């Protein structure tokens, strides 16, 4: 009997969280779409492990190995027909990457591809388009732990994509390392975010978009706070008011917004500083949130390959 379904697994080793997504895809039909059957997420905070020489320390590597061993157990039970594991900015930037990867691959039981920033941006855009089923031009922003991707284009046709050297974990450690939330700290972080995108701002605006979608933990955290507070739209003005409330709180451990998860407090300031700087520089007044991300882009690629 011919096989009618194949099992797929995508592993996204981000700078903040690692994700494992398990899916099935039908071998029938012209446009096979993966059906996700399970998701696993683990806060590894890999980017927290950088030392002054931009090497990842032993604690961050141990956290990564422990997570991947758990993923390996899930993969053994699932028995996938195709697996793809990619690592993003933290490992991409790590000075001791070559020493780390073999141990991580041994823990996972599969090879790991450290992808470029441009490849990461393309996969994010593909994942967002697949999840949101967009038709009109969109601008996608993904704020990771150590990099931020900004992509504009139509579905399957990214027009402009950049991977910027900033992320919520890195910004938190750079601008809020003392755990204090001051106006000066926020303004320094926001100004740096604006500077990172400034050279490309005109190109993005000329490319044009109908909708702005955020595809990361920072955006989901904001959506949860907005929902808990009865805020009907995610706007730049509302984000500014949230920053002002962070400053009024004065410290990370004093953040107490309704809907804000405990595990997100530690890196909230870094993430919203980046987002506010991008919104200012690109002239964006309102944005939305999508569940699509890099891992959905990986699944789409895998589905296309196994059903070709």
TrEMBL record:
Alphabetized Pfam families for the sequence: Ppx-GppA (PF02541)
MF (Gene Ontology): pyrophosphatase activity
Domain of life, source organism: Bacteria
SUPFAM superfamilies (UniProt xref): Actin-like ATPase domain (SSF53067)
Boundaries of every Ppx/GppA phosphatase N-terminal domain copy: 34-302
PANTHER family: EXOPOLYPHOSPHATASE (PTHR30005), RETROGRADE REGULATION PROTEIN 2 (PTHR30005:SF0)
Name of the molecule in the record: Ppx/GppA family phosphatase
Organism: Idiomarina seosinensis
Lineage: Bacteria, Pseudomonadati, Pseudomonadota, Gammaproteobacteria, Alteromonadales
């Amino acid at each position: 009997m011919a096989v009618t379904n194949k099992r797929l697994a995508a592993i996204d080793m981000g700078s903040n969280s690692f994700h494992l997504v398990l899916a099935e895809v039908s071998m029938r039909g012209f446009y096979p779409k993966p059906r996700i059957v399970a998701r696993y997420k683990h806060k590894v905070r890999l980017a927290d492990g950088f030392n002054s020489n931009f090497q990842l320390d032993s604690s961050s590597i141990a956290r990564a190995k422990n997570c991947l061993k758990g993923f390996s157990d899930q993969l053994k039970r699932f028995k996938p027909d195709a697996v793809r594991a990619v690592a993003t900015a933290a490992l991409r930037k790590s000075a001791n990457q070559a020493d780390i990867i073999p141990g991580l691959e041994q823990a996972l039981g599969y090879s790991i591809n450290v992808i470029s920033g441009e490849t990461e941006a393309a996969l994010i855009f593909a994942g967002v388009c697949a999840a949101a089923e967009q038709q009109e031009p969109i601008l996608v922003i993904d704020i990771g732990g150590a990099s931020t991707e900004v992509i504009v284009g139509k579905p399957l046709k990214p027009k402009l994509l950049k991977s910027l050297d900033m992320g919520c974990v890195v910004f938190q450690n750079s601008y809020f390392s003392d755990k204090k939330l001051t106006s000066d700290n926020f303004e320094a972080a926001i100004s740096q975010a604006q500077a990172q995108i400034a050279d490309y701002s005109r190109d993005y605006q000329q490319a044009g978009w109908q909708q702005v979608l955020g595809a990361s933990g920072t955006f989901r955290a904001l959506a949860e706070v907005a929902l808990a507070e009865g805020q009907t739209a995610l706007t730049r003005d509302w984000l500014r008011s949230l920053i002002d409330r962070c400053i009024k709180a004065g410290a990370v451990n004093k953040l107490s917004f309704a809907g804000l998860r405990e595990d997100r407090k530690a890196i909230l300031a870094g993430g919203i500083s980046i987002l506010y700087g991008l919104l200012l520089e690109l002239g964006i007044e309102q944005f939305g949130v999508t569940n699509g991300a890099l891992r959905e882009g990986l699944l789409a690629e895998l589905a296309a390959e196994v059903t070709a």
